[in-house]
Amino acid sequence: MPVDPVTSVLVQKLDGELRRQVLDRREAMLRELRFLRVRQDRFLEVVQSAGWTDQRLEVLCGLNSFYQLVLGPLASSARERFGILGGEVPILYGDSLRFDRQRATQLRSAHRAFFAALSEVPDAHKMVTAPHFSDLVFRLALNLEGNGHG
Q1: Angle ∠(43,47,48) on CA atoms, nearest 5
Q2: 127-140 pLDDT, tens per residue?
Q3: pLDDT at res. 57
Q4: Contact 143, 123 (CB under 8 A)
Q5: How far is CA 131 from each of CA 9, 77, 108, rounded to the nearest angstrom?
Q6: Counting Cβ atoms within 10 Å, is residue 87 exposed (0-12), middle (13-18) or buried (19+)?
Q7: What is the pLDDT confidence band of residue 80, given thresholds at 50, 70 and 90?
Q8: Engineered SS bond to 52: which of 21, 42, 47, 64, CB 3.0-4.6 Å?
Q9: pLDDT, mean of residues 140-146
Q10: Phi, psi for 118 (deg, rounded to 5)
Q11: What local confidence, expressed as pLDDT, does residue 1 receive?
Q12: Which one, of 119, 98, 97, 116, lies nearest residue 108 by Cα?
């Protein structure tokens, strides 16, 4: 299946195995979208009647997959923590990975930029952290119906 332009840009520089994992997760979410459409899922109908086309949902699945497998775990390693490991004392992993204050600052900046780019997505954090498409469409429908707070 062809990949939407947004996901294509996000995965283009990933190593082959990670790229495959992101695209496989995205495809699993899209299979669930097709299944929910056949089932005439109420939440999918709410989302689509609010203007969320299959193309927009496809992009959201790509963003979710990228966040779940790439940016989320990296951002987690960059959270502000008390203590000295990774802040005052760098953590070295192999020959090339260095977890230090500079890396953490760059990752937090990338995390903020990712969510700034998602400003049109209601409650974006809940959308990119949804474990399955059915959870994503449920969260989006609740938000669109005005029950998405909390």
Answers
A1: 115
A2: 999 999 999 999 99
A3: 97
A4: yes
A5: 22, 20, 22
A6: middle
A7: low
A8: 47
A9: 91
A10: -95, 25
A11: 63
A12: 116
CA dist 43 and 141 (Å) reads 6
- What's phi and psi for 33, nearest 5 deg? -60, -50
Per DSSP, 55 falls in state: H
Q: Where are the strands (E) in 50-93, listed by range?
A: 91-93
Lowest mean pLDDT among 66-70, 71-75, 126-130: 71-75
Q: Delimit the domains of the chain by residue range.
A: 5-144
User: Which residues, 6 or more positions from 92, have their beta carbon under 8 angstroms from its beta carbon?
Assistant: 98, 99
Tell me if residue 109 falls in helix, strand or coil. helix
DSSP assignment string, 30-50: HHHHHHHHHHT-HHHHHHHHT
- Please, which contacts does 119-125 make with residues 24 or more away whose CB atoms are closer than 8 Å? 121/60, 121/63, 122/148, 123/148
- What the block records as the tokens of 102 is 């500079």
Query: Position 120: which residue type?
Result: E
